[in-house]
């Protein structure tokens, strides 16, 4: 998704070549993943000159929000608190970072 968002639109070959710069990946894997993302409604597919062209179907923030909500529902039984606790327990987020986030939220809500 990040590559398609960054490009605005992309073919399977575009995404495949961008990914190859970072790691080895099979062309068919990229094709499958783009198909899955299309099936979930995150991408739209249109026939191009020589290949299908994929475009984001929704703004990035909306897709990320939907994916996070789905993830929390499936993995943490809908509990964001359990997700945050897991991040704290595994050291993936520090108490200081949480304080910073809480401070930002409080500043953002005050007129």
Detailed description of the structure:
With 111 residues, the protein is mostly helical. The chain folds into two domains: 2-56, Winged helix-like DNA-binding domain superfamily/Winged helix DNA-binding domain (Arc Repressor Mutant, subunit A); 60-109, Penicillinase repressor fold (Orthogonal Bundle). The chain has six helices and two strands; from the N terminus they run H-H-H-E-E-H-H-H. Strands 1-2 form a two-stranded antiparallel ribbon. Strand 1 (43-47) and strand 2 (52-56) form a beta hairpin. Helix 2 (12-20) crosses helix 3. The longest helix has 16 residues, at 60-75. The radius of gyration is 18 Å and the shape is elongated. The model has no long low-confidence stretch (mean pLDDT 90).
**CATH fold-level topology of the largest domain:** Arc Repressor Mutant, subunit A
- Number of self-contained structural domains: 2
- CATH class of the largest domain reads Mainly Alpha
- The helicity comes to 55-70%
How many helices does DSSP assign?
Answer: 6
Rounded average pLDDT: 90
Q: Extract low-pLDDT stretches.
A: none
**What is the beta-strand fraction?**
5-15%
Shape: elongated
What's the CATH architecture name of the largest domain?
Answer: Orthogonal Bundle
Q: What structural category arises from helix and sheet content? A: mainly alpha
Strand order, main sheet: write it out. 1-2
Assembly state here? single chain
């Amino acid at each position: 998704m990040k590559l398609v968002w960054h490009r605005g639109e992309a073919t399977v070959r575009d995404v495949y070549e961008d990914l190859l710069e970072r790691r080895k990946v099979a062309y068919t894997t990229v094709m499958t993943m783009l198909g899955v993302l299309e099936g979930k409604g995150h991408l739209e597919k249109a026939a191009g000159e020589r290949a299908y062209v994929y475009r984001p179907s929704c703004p990035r923030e909306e897709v990320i929000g939907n994916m996070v909500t789905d993830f929390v529902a499936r993995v943490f039984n809908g509990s964001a608190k359990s997700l945050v606790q897991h991040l704290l327990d595994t050291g993936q987020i520090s108490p200081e970072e949480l304080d910073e986030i809480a401070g930002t939220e409080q500043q953002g809500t005050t007129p």
